[in-house]
Write a structure and sequence with these properties.
Low-confidence stretches: 1-28
Number of strands: 10
Shape: globular
Strand order of the largest sheet: 6-7-8-9-10
Strand content: 5-15%
Radius of gyration: 22 Å
CATH superfamily: Metal-dependent hydrolases
CATH class: Alpha Beta
CATH architecture: Alpha-Beta Barrel
Mean pLDDT: 92
Length: 363
């Protein structure tokens, strides 16, 4: 009876080749045991900061009434959104993450003012309580009822000044209304005034729901990156980033598709000026605005991270995992596996960029 070893030994002479089919990434091949805390580079301790991690609170979800059961995403890791401190810390340790900056994806944008205000109040207070319990391990983005910009301004001010939250997590739009709409300008003005960081996390692209049907969870696989891309392009082309040059914006999932095909933006208004507003005179080329935005490193492969760095600069990229959803279970290894990065760039992406942006103590 032939053994598996015999079969493999004879495979080469039979003209058979084997591949990993992507099951083992370069990081694992080079470092079979994933890096855990503490993380060091040439003996220097690096404080790793994950700017893209999630949680939920039962108290706020229950305020959604009959819709409460539809809030949790149908994914692995969904129950872990309700943080059990010791379990979450163990998971972070295993991933090599010192600190998570927590956020809650908006599920309240269609609620009436009073209900939305109560949901946001509960969430922001619970986030502040969680961060206070482990200030060395957790920070958080506030929730905002952006459908009511005047309310969102007050919520952001309170969250930053009174609760100690680091900024706010926002969707890719507000029920289809883009952030470049002047109605949202007071919110961006307040964020700029406070130095608050805005984390854009998409909510698919609902207008394309019919085309997303079928295999592959396309509403997320394609819809989420597309939603972020549209949001960023409007902020650029409508002059919002010129109006609020001090805005600190982090875009989830590597900024969607923008970093992969950004130069096309520089040619659009030259090729078709009739499709561009002559009253909006941008101060820079569209691609140059990418250098004032920030992006998480959740792009999966060393080549994708290399390209993103080449497009926007290592100074604009931060660690992001989407934890507890298991998109990227070894995010630190992913950065180390990107051989095109210098040690200084790796340290920046792993934590130093985030520490600087959030005004945290040095790593």
């Amino acid at each position: 009876m032939s053994t598996r070893r015999d079969f493999l030994k004879g495979a080469g002479t039979a003209g058979i080749a084997f591949c990993s089919c992507g099951l083992l990434d370069a990081a694992h091949a080079q470092n079979p045991r994933p890096r855990q805390l503490p993380i060091t580079i040439k003996g220097k301790r690096i404080k790793t900061i994950d700017v893209h991690a999630h949680c939920y609170f039962h108290e706020s979800i229950n305020l959604m009434g009959d819709e409460a059961g539809k809030i949790l995403p149908p994914v692995k890791g969904a129950p872990e959104h309700f943080i059990l401190i010791e379990n979450r810390l163990k998971a972070m340790d295993a991933m090599g993450i010192d600190m998570q900056v927590l956020s809650i994806n908006p599920f309240w944008y269609r609620r009436e003012r009073e209900a939305a205000a109560e949901i946001v109040k509960v969430q922001n207070e619970k986030l502040a309580e969680l961060c206070a319990s482990k200030p060395d391990r957790f920070a958080a983005f506030a929730s905002l009822a952006l459908q009511y910009p005047d309310l969102a301004v007050n919520q952001l001010d309170h969250a930053v000044k009174k609760l100690g939250l680091r900024g706010a997590a926002i969707g890719g739009s507000v029920s289809g209304e883009d952030f470049s709409d002047p109605k949202f300008h007071p919110v961006w003005a307040k964020a700029e005034e406070l130095g608050a960081v805005l984390f854009i996390h998409p909510q698919s692209t609902p207008e394309l729901a019919k085309r997303f049907k079928g295999n592959g969870w396309l509403s997320n696989t394609i819809g989420n990156p597309l939603d972020t891309t549209i949001a960023l392009q409007h902020l650029i082309f409508e002059g919002t980033l010129d109006r609020f040059p001090g805005l600190k914006i982090i875009a989830a999932h590597g900024g969607g598709y923008l970093g992969s095909y950004a130069p096309r933006s520089d040619h659009a208004c030259f090729v078709s000026p009739q499709n561009c507003n002559p009253d909006i005179k941008l101060k820079k080329k569209p691609t140059e605005y990418l250098n004032q935005l920030y992006f998480d490193a959740l792009v999966f492969t060393p080549e994708a991270l290399r390209h993103l760095v080449a497009q926007v600069g290592a100074s604009q990229i931060m660690l992001g995992t989407d934890h507890p959803i298991p998109w990227e279970e070894h995010p630190v290894d992913h950065v180390f596996a990107t051989d095109s990065l210098t040690d200084r760039q790796k340290a920046a992406i792993l934590g130093e960029n985030a520490a600087r942006l959030f005004g945290m103590k040095g790593t």
